[in-house]
Amino acid sequence: MAIDTQEQRAVGEVLAVSMSPTHTFSKPNQEYIRLLTGLGVEGDAHLGRTVKHRSRVAVDPTQPNLRQVHLIHGELHTELQAAGFTVSAGQMGENITTRGIDLLALPTGTRLHLGETAIVEVTGLRNPCVQLDRFQPGLMAAVLDHDENGDLIRKAGIMGIVLTDGEVRPGDPIRVELPPAPHRPLVKV
User: Fold this and answer.
1) Which PROSITE patterns does UniProt cross-reference here (predicted)?
2) Do strands 166-168 and 111-114 pair parallel, antiparallel, or not at all (unpaired)?
3) pLDDT tens across 87-121, in order?
4) In what order do the strands lie in the sheet with 33-36?
5) How far, in whole angstroms, is CA 52 from its chain's centroid?
6) Residue 146 belongs to a domain
7) pTM listed for this prediction
8) Among candidates 27, 47, 46, 22, which has minimal Cα distance to 36?
9) Cβ count within 10 A of residue 187
10) CA distance 47 to 108
11) Strand blocks (E) in the chain
């Protein structure tokens, strides 16, 4: 779905929500998840104001957690399935699977209004890691690409922080609120 720059919003949909209380790669689907302001997904292993991803904790456990919520566009699952992979919502570690929004094209600072009250601010791109290949051989390469200039494209979703509490369920609408221009492209976080 294209973003209407006049109104600076677009409507997409939540396909699935997922969370895991432990540091597992895949996250089981849920009936709903609750987003907590400044923390992330209630009950998820990555909940917190400071980093919870093990590799980042090892470097500096006091870093702010810019990866509280992981979102993947369901269109990526469709692309991967067409390439022979068996993937579905939550299996690549995402908390929210979306449809109808080009997540990777959003600028840094975009606000995603999810369901009735939740708001997530986009902080950057997920940096694919070797865990993808442990899940299914070749998956990491499948979520990386290059543009016409040879620059790396990371397709494994985006990360964000929770600005406003709220429950998010499959079928909930998503409204996109772009930040003021000039827009900054997403970089890995």
Assistant:
1) MOSC
2) unpaired
3) 999 999 999 999 999 999 999 999 999 999 999 99
4) 40-41, 33-36, 166-168
5) 15
6) yes
7) 0.93
8) 47
9) 11
10) 21
11) 11-18, 29-30, 33-36, 40-41, 69-73, 96-99, 111-114, 118-125, 144-146, 152-154, 158-164, 166-168, 173-177
Question: Would 19 be classed as within a structural domain?
Answer: yes
Phi, psi (rounded to 5 degrees) for 45: -60, -20
Count how many domains the chain has. 1
Predicted pLDDT at 9? 55
Q: Which amino acid is at 102?
A: D
Distance CA 18, CA 78 (A): 18
Which of 88, 56, 49, 54 is CA-nearest to residue 72? 88
CATH number of the CATH domain containing 147: 2.40.33.20
Which structure tokens are listed for 143? 């979520």
Q: What is the Cα–Cα distance from 32 to 21, expressed in whole angstroms?
A: 14
Per-residue model confidence as pLDDT tens digits over 9-58 = 558 999 999 999 999 999 999 999 999 999 999 999 999 999 987 788 88
CA dihedral 108, 114, 117, 120 (to 10 degrees): -20
Torsion angles phi and psi, residue 110, rounded to 5: -60, 140
Is position 67 within any domain?
yes
